[in-house]
Amino acid sequence: MVLIFKAEVAIAITVVGTMVGAGFASGQELVQFFLTLGGGAPAAVILSGLLFSLANSQVRHLALKWHTRSYRDFLVRLLGGWVRPADLFVAAFLFGGLAIMLAGSGAIARQHFGQAPWCGILACAALAMLACWGKGRGLLILNACLTPVMLAVMVFTAVVALMSRPGLLPPAQPAPAGGLISGNWAINACLYVAYNMVGVAVLLTSLPATHRGVLGAGLGGLFLGALAYLLVMSLASLDLTGLTTELPLLYLVATLHPGLLGIYTLALWLAMVTTAASDLYGLVTRLEQHLAFPTWQIAALILLLALPVATCGFINLVAWVYPFFGYLGLVVMVLALVHWYFKI
Q: Residue 1's pLDDT is what?
């Protein structure tokens, strides 16, 4: 029983580590998807948390039932003849996410630690590569070490913000919506879940069956929803200037307690590392089925291809790329439902 509990907790932590990427930890995702809604923000966050929990549990349940070894195995069972475009979509998402996390790591190294961008990029790449060790064990260990620290800093920051300014409500003047962001709270919640589910579905369909994880996957989704709610309520205290900055949560930290800025920057970097690790692991498990090379060589090849893209810099892609993948994710989900219920 104790071992089962530990396994479920490990899965929950890894799910949260996968979902909490640079966009979440910086606050940019939360502003774009939720705080642009004004009074509809709390309902959208709550709905997204519930959808995360249900979707995570169901994906892991089906992955165990179908004995999947990679996300492509899962797509084959779920989509049948439509698997090729969905497979390319997921691979593009993972590769793009990996490159963006590496670029963000480089930006943090330069802007907040005074180091060359390559220091941050290579450090993130090295830790992500370690996650590919041991058929998922490395990813679980990495998240077990880094995610609790990252989450503790984020929760502490949110609590300090809420205690400093009690009775917070969503801002009377919502943050301006950009790109493909919707103005409807239900659509934004679904887009947010669809976008984030791509990465976590890759994780949940790639981990060996020995890890189980149906309960842990659901708990991870609930915890992420609760954390998002806490941070959204904290960000609601910002004026329009703060809400429109590239890194709203860092702006909030600098406003409330400048001494915490370095610690939160570290948490943001850890969020990038855990997301990059999950993206890389998903790509490696997919390519292992076609390439007769050791895992570390495949991981190194993917990283070498991603490095040139990462040197383009950490540009604000949240308003366009994230919802774009969200819309595509919704299309894939609709196709999956059609195939599942009508068997066509």
A: 61
